[in-house]
Amino acid sequence: MNEKLIERKLRESVKKLGGLALKFSSPYHRGMPDRIVLMPGNRIAFAELKTIGKKPTELQKKAIAELRAMGFKAEVIDSQEGLNKFLEEISC
What we know:
Layout: H1 3-16, E1 20-23, E2 35-39, E3 43-49, H2 58-69, E4 73-77, H3 80-90
Parallel strand pairs: 3-4
Antiparallel strand pairs: 1-2, 2-3
């Protein structure tokens, strides 16, 4: 599965759950995840989407670690299984 397909499935699935999966870009903080996911009940998560087998860059790993240290859910998703797990965790 490629990154664009995972991204489309993420957007559609989050919308069905009542949330938004917005494209996220931060020009002054490189490495931030691709999508910010906003869910009902003030829940926020971040998703870095990759083609199967691709790994995040060092900058992306650092940004994800910073987000997690602040208590946010931040995941790298590169498969249908990873997407399913992410969706299950944010829908609780």
